[in-house]
Amino acid sequence: MQAIVGLSRGISRALVQGVVQRSQGSTEASQRAGVEDADSRLVTAVSGFPKPGSNYNIDNILKGQIGDDAYFVARHVDEWSTSDFEVVSRVETPRVEPEPKKGNADVIGVADGVGGWRAYGVDPGLFSVNLMKNCERLVKAGYFVGSQPSKLLAQGFREMQENKQQIIGSSTACLMMLSHTDLKLYTTNIGDSGFLVVRSGEVVHRSQEQQHYFNTPFQLSLPPTELQSEVLADRPESADQYEFCVEDGDVILLATDGIFDNVPDRLLVEEMAVVQHCKDSMRLQQCANSIALMARKLSRDPKFLSPFSVNALAAGIEAEGGKPDDITVLLATVSL
Q1: Which one, 28, 68, 102, 215, has the greatest CB density within 10 A?
Q2: Residues 6+ apart with CB under 8 A from 241
Q3: Contact call for residues 211 and 219 (beta carbons, < 8 A)
């Protein structure tokens, strides 16, 4: 229980065993947040905890890091419409294909740093955290297209490649964009993090794992020169892409493999169905905490036939029980 963290998108952030209040800092900022909330398309909550034996740092968790996992929740709303800049001209000009609209969108993401880098003295969390921070900053600055999360992921990764002080490591990643323009959900997923969308107690959309072989997911990597031939390094273009319409009240789960390796879909659906149409951030937070706690409990059960052990058996590997790991749950409901 000590290592469970809960975060609500809004004025305050809740921590199990206490409440951490994070004020916007001014009345003006609070009023501005209230206006944004009125237009919100996603109501979100985050919960999770680092794997057993990891250092527990509440400041890191509040900033978007849970063990080797990382996450972000961001929103971009253009203050100016294109009509504000339209100029009528009588001079005919060649027709040019319009660029995709940037538009307004809610964007959420998770990433899971590859723990194997510890053997080389590298902190796996640095890579995933920086990747998510880059994506978050690009969204808030409006440097993204609201229907192309794959390009956002590629740009976030490209900035890491171009960093003068290169951050060594690897990570899986999953990004989701809810476009305010067409009310579609656009996603990109590389590796074994992923998402689940539940409507009326049924799974209507789900990502699929990308694995090179058992327990070796696709991953974005920046290895040092001497290890380039030994390290798996997939391109952002290898990520699976999905797009689909959503409905008011749909429940979205975005999570790292600490959830999907330990909790069967049927148990996730049971928890998520309770908060369909939920606009109450506290209720949503309680559900996110419940899912995280369930994942931790099952990961420590040596007799439980977990999804991880089922996949291991399918690969010809004898396995039983859950898989202790960092757990990150980002839960959201669609509010239209």
Answers
A1: 68
A2: 149, 150, 186, 187, 188, 189
A3: no
C-alpha to C-alpha distance for 219 and 239, rounded to whole angstroms: 9
End-to-end CA distance of the chain: 34
- State pLDDT tens for residues 209-256: 999 999 999 999 999 999 999 999 999 999 999 999 999 999 999 999
Residue from 15, 44, 19 nearest 330 by CA: 44
Query: Are 127 and 170 spatial neighbours (Cβ–Cβ below 8 Å)?
Result: yes
Cα–Cα distance measured from residue 8 to residue 18, given in angstroms and rounded to the nearest whole number: 14
Q: Cα–Cα distance between 68 and 63 in angstroms, integer?
A: 13
Q: Could you tell me how far CA 270 lies from the centroid of its own chain? A: 21
**Residue 22, token pair as written in the block:** 């994070």
Buried b (16+ CB within 10 A) or exposed e, 298-336: bbeeeebebbbbebbeeeeeebebbbebbbbbbbbbbbe
- pTM of the entire structure? 0.85
User: CB-based contacts of 155: which residues, under 8 Å, 6+ apart?
Assistant: 134, 135, 138, 143, 144
228 neighbors 308 (Cβ within 8 angstroms): no
Nearest alpha-carbon partner for 51 in 247, 324, 266, 288: 324
